[in-house]
Amino acid sequence: MKKLLIASTSTVHGKKYLEYILPELSLFFKGVKEILFIPYARPSGLTHKAYTEVAKTAFEKINIEVRGIHEFENAIDAVNNAKGIFTGGGNTFLLVKELYDHKLISALKNVVENGTPYFGTSAGSNITGLTMQNTNDMPIIYPPSFNTLGFINFNINPHYLDPDLNSTHMGETRETRINEYHTINSTPVLGLREGSWLAVNGSKVTLKGDLNARLFQQGKAAVELPSETDLSFLM
């Protein structure tokens, strides 16, 4: 039975990297001594090694060791043998390109569907949906496909932002862009605000965190969903 924790972000205001969600991670990875980190999204151009060190520092606080996938001779074997997996944020286009280049899409699907716990933040959460088409990132590189892991039957828009009512900016809002997506595509999109996450156990999906999420469905008005909402109907 698949087990996922899909978070909007790794860092919330006023806290260190993953600090806000460490108590949840301690329970999520209970009994796991070492996890595999996938640093391919490389935020701010960090090297794989430097990004992995950031993850290591955070997980040390809950007594879990972290090894970067780049440290292994064979990336597919690293995924197949992992006891837990964490894919960090950064640029989703780059992340997806690397996953295809290393032929990891099928490997990740297989191990997670068979019970290896998967934790994602930002770009690492984008890829849990059917496609990466609702990322906020710039297309700095072109992946072979926008199709991603499909662990959930909808898409994620992490870092979802509400319009600033005091701003004079007249550009598109996040809601406008998601509605544009739905002029062509029918896949539901969940806007996850900072500090919120989804807990997935098999086909059961529950919204967690202190904030509402915003659900967009083609041909319907967007709706606000409070924490602890059961989203299993989207599966």
UniProtKB/TrEMBL annotation:
Q: Which InterPro entries match?
A: Class_I_gatase-like, Peptidase_S51
- Which GO molecular function entries does the Swiss-Prot or TrEMBL record give? serine-type peptidase activity
Keywords (alphabetical) are: Hydrolase, Protease, Serine protease
The lineage's top-level taxon is Bacteria
- Signal peptide boundaries: none
Family of this protein: Belongs to the peptidase S51 family.
Q: State what protein this is by name.
A: Dipeptidase E
Give the source species: Lutibacter oricola
